[in-house]
Known about the structure:
two-stranded antiparallel ribbon
Amino acid sequence: MKARGPDRRSGGGRRAGEIGVRPISGPPLVTCPHCGHAIPAGDFCGHCGAHLATGSVRRTHAFAAVPSERVAHLSIITTLFPHLPHRRGRPFLVALLGGGTLVLILAALHLFAPATVTALLVLPILYLIYLYEVEVYESEPWLVIGATMVIGALLGLAFTDATGVSLSQLVLTGDRETGFVLAGIAIPILAQVLMLAGPLFLYLFRERLREPLDGLTFGAASGLGFSLASSLTDFWPLLSGPLVATGSPLDWAIRLARAGLLVSLVNACTTALITAALWLLRYDRRRAGRPWHSSIVAAVAVALGVQVALGMISFVVQDLLLDVAILGLVAAALLLYVRLVIHDALLVEGAEHEIGPDAPCPECHRVVPTMAFCPACGAARSAGSKQGRANFAGNA
Length: 396
């Protein structure tokens, strides 16, 4: 690349070290049609993330966490594990599929107790590995894990045990009206509030964990911990029974897919929606122009609305396949909504960003100037692992 001297244009960030004796090499500067900043030439604006060819900041064809995917792309891994580069997410996908296959094999062998434990543990264990891999907890791993997964699990255990007794009493007395209100409205709302307890503690007392993806991760972890404990409580009679049990393997496989995957995904997504919107409210320096679907009001309304609707449906619908089909559609819709919120959160314009030294992009691995977004592929730098960003800062 051709060396260039200091650029005297103003209005958007300078190349780090620009005011000095040594000239800085790099691509020529152009003006972003969206934010008006002078940025390195490329496919995307390194400051606001807009697609330079069209001037579109929405860039729905390139998800800000994984630009090789569209925003409207159904994926568990790249949605709930957004700090993972695309290539490092494949082992997690393989592990998820392998766990599902193992559940099917165990169910086919009538080993329903081991199948249940496997089904309920796959997602939470993968998420613990993810937390370790990207170090979202920074220097306080036990605090973050304790305030999310552990507190979520303890609250899920106590809540499910208490509400199970109340529902059993209503079933015995035949009071379906009260049972409907309790199972369809009160329990879903209270459960969602309890899933927010641990993340809210971190929001109030660990302000330095301020990025929107921090909030999303804490919410998803809390939802998974709560789901694990509540499902284990529900299935405890099976787990304490004989190793080889009687029953239909297909029926059990469907039940375990519901509890271990779909319910866990719903709880992780609804909690992550609220926490991501809450963290974004504090992180976003703009007070106008934020899309309505990323607001805290919309997140709370969607999360509580989904939980109440599913609670009512589960109480009314007796057919297992229909219930699972509805739950699957809702989980898919929530994953797409969460991706939209992540995309908006990563496109938030924060403080002025300097044009830093050239370094490999964690996503596309091309050597580009360090900015909020990769000028080549458009990946948000804040979607990279904190460990990787810390290593780069230490070497810069």
